[in-house]
Amino acid sequence: MDGMLLQLSNLDPTTKWLLIVAVGLTIFYAVMRPMRKKRDPLSRAPAPASLASQRAVERDMSNLLVELSEMARQITAQLDTRTLKLEMLIKEADDRIDALKAAGRESSRGAISAPTANGESPAPAPPESPVDPRHLEVYHLIDQGRSPQEIAQKLSRPQGEVELILALRDRAPSL
């Protein structure tokens, strides 16, 4: 290698030595690099943790379990409360349905009465259903050709409520 450098006659001695040092460092790096491979940190055995750090981890885990059980208890309590409320609402709705059915049977029995003096049966009276005055406002405005959105804005009510009132009106026997 020195022979090749010496053949380059136009280089001064300092440049030749710098070139020799650079080549030597390159060879040294190429030889030493494979020896310096990074090792997998999980391949070696873990260092034994101190007793204090093990207890700290154990205490943290215990606190975490307590917090999780408390959160689970709170969620269960909330679900139980909501379930009870729903059951009460369902029972109330069933009671109202039964009352409406009973009122319907009574009104149909009352409509079938004894024949009149001339022997004819009277025409059955239409069942009277109490209409909420707030619903009448909505019915009146829809009959005028207004949209549910306009009605909701005019009456300062949610549009969903107005649409529900109108949907219930469609299902009612006669209004």
How would you portray this structure in words?
- The protein is mostly helical.
- It has helices at residues 2-7, 13-32, 51-111, 133-143, 148-155, 159-171.
- The protein has three domains: 2-31; 56-109; 131-175.
- It is built from six helices and no strands.
Percent of residues in helices = 55-70%
Structural class: mainly alpha
Distance between the termini: 112 Å
What integer value in Å does the Rg equal? 46 Å
Biggest sheet architecture? none
Counting H and I runs of at least 4 residues, what is the number of helices? Answer: 6
Sum up the overall morphology in one term.
elongated
SSE order, one letter for each helix or strand: HHHHHH
Uncertain runs: none
The count of DSSP E runs of length 2 or more, i.e. the number of strands, is 0
Nutshell version of this structure?
This protein is an all-alpha fold and 175 residues long. It contains 6 helices and no strands.
